[in-house]
Hints:
This protein is α/β, with parallel strands linked by helices. The protein folds into two domains: about 5-115 and about 290-305, NAD(P)-binding Rossmann-like Domain (Rossmann fold), CATH 3.40.50; about 115-290, 2-Layer Sandwich (Dihydrodipicolinate Reductase, domain 2). It contains nine helices and 13 strands. The strands form two sheets. A seven-stranded mixed β-sheet has the order 8-9-7-10-13-12-11. It has a six-stranded parallel β-sheet with strand order 2-1-3-4-6-5, with helices on both faces. Helix 4 packs across helix 9 (about 290-305). Ligand 2 binds near residues 150, 151 and 201. NADPH dihydro-nicotinamide-adenine-dinucleotide phosphate binds near residues 8, 152 and 288.
Amino acid sequence: MTFKVFVDGQEGTTGLRIHEYLAGRADLEVLKIDADKRKDAAERARLINASDITFLCLPDAASREAAAMVTNPQTCLIDASTAHRTVPGWTYGMPELAPGQRDAIRAGKRIANPGCHASAFVLAVRPLVQAGLLPADAPVTATSITGYSGGGKSMIAQYEAGGDAALTAPRPYALALAHKHLPEMKAHTGLARPPVFMPIVASFYKGLAVSVPLHLSSLKPGTTGAQLQQALAEYYAGERFIRVMPLSDPDTLADGFFDVQACNDTNRVDLFVFANDTQAVVMARLDNLGKGASGAAVQAMNVHLGCEESLGL
Length: 313
Ligand SMILES: NC(=O)C1=CN([C@@H]2O[C@H](COP(=O)(O)OP(=O)(O)OC[C@H]3O[C@@H](n4cnc5c(N)ncnc54)[C@H](OP(=O)(O)O)[C@@H]3O)[C@@H](O)[C@H]2O)C=CC1
Ligand SMILES: CC(=O)N[C@@H](CCC(=O)OP(=O)(O)O)C(=O)O
């Protein structure tokens, strides 16, 4: 059986990368829209409804518009945007989130792909809340360092134009403390409040690492760094795309510096706990265009189609 797949937003950063993942898949027929019609609502609606799977790789408003175009009950949408991640009726497209999440992705026809920063944060924090080590009402904070491709075509063009000295240094942003990933960070971790979150974009193309600093005294009494690491390792045992590293892994910091780009060109997430007797930092690293966007979207499709086990990514 061949499944028909359409990418709405095929010329964008996420859409192009999805096409690379789909190339060579004998089980899929990729439907293409003519370049001059790619924003033509009627033509997009025709292709969406001719597909078994449509990836929405669009700004939020265009994603909502596309979702309203679906009339074919067989069509499954996988939305890369922020539009539907905490909307009832949509399944969060993170198979490793919880037992039962793969079944929900298999059954659902509306799948919301996690945000890149949120993917790293949720995967790092949820197991600690579930294990009772991190109280749900703890005052959690997080920073994220990301490559500029996370900002899509316009930010890539800005960085690659050159000539602006401000862009050569890392730039903290979202300092209104209302980043668009906060609702899903709260909803999918079990935290009572979203974290205080400060992302930083820097002058490298891709790669992302979220850091969550913790005072052990604010955790369940007696919690150690080893227990945090063990909780993550147990939660993700058997997950092929999640690698939980040894506590305070000396190899990672062989030269004293953390490599934000070491998951690039993979669909992998690496999780780390660095700790001493009183403090810990939990970190998650991924490729923002891999597990942070296009890789995760293709993985969700594979789960939906029941072929996750048999295919690589
Ligand atoms: N880049 C990343 O790391 C991640 C991105 N995302 C999300 O994925 C979505 C796509 O992001 P990204 O690929 O980076 O963005 P880009 O800006 O690179 O691409 C978006 C594409 O959508 C097209 N588009 C805009 N409006 C419409 C419309 N009405 N109809 C059809 N096409 C339209 C744009 O056209 P044109 O070429 O004319 O501009 C562009 O090609 C966004 O919601 C983003 O937030 C999610 C996770 C990570
Ligand atoms: C560098 C940069 O600007 N990054 C984007 C994140 C991209 C992303 O993941 O956005 P979605 O919510 O659409 O998934 C940002 O922080 O807004």
